[in-house]
Amino acid sequence: MSELTRVHLLRHGEVHNPTKVLYGRLPGYHLSDLGLAMAERVAGAVAERDVAVLVSSPLDRARETAAPLADALGLEVRLDDRLLEALNVFEGLTFGVGDGSIRHPRHWRSLRNPFKPSWGEPYREIADRMLAAMSDARRDAAGHEAVLVSHQLPIWTVRSFIEGRRLWHDPRRRECALASLTTVTYEDDTIVSVAYSEPAGDLLPQSGKPFSAGA
């Protein structure tokens, strides 16, 4: 009989980033109060699931998102560099149209090829490392479920690869909200489906619902 295994790719919760820089792999960027509430919400959503493996990117915001899941599931968090945020030359800078670093000609050469992309880690390399991390988690959780805490671009890139879409894309069109789950189901070692859910969707800033840190 074939064996079904589910690997959930969890994007971390909201980060405290008052200066609005592209923080990338920089240390010291932690979850905001809202981000901590998002992590708790996801922990509640997966607490009764058959999760046998919990893995996280080593970055602070990912580990802080994984912590309440570890408590709820009674699991140790394993760290995996393959789940890290993508490398980016604009790390630590503000980035936007008419704003910050892209106004300066010295940065324009980094924008010359959006298909690779020229400003950071190639999309295919991101997809390959994510697939490798997912494959190991699938093996270790065979017949059960695994949660891997990562970041928006790596999760969206590997999902696009799995679903046969081009890897270069408009970042505004990613379906990968804060604290969302992208669930990949394997039949034995073959991917058979991808699903998406937002267990903390009502806490997202665009939901319009007020948030209280004491709630």
TrEMBL record:
Record InterPro entries: His_Pase_superF_clade-1, His_PPase_superfam, PGM_Phosphatase
GO molecular function per UniProt: phosphatase activity
Xref: SMART domains: PGAM (SM00855)
One of the record's GO cellular component terms: cytoplasm
Protein name: Broad specificity phosphatase PhoE
Species per Swiss-Prot/TrEMBL record: Jiangella alkaliphila
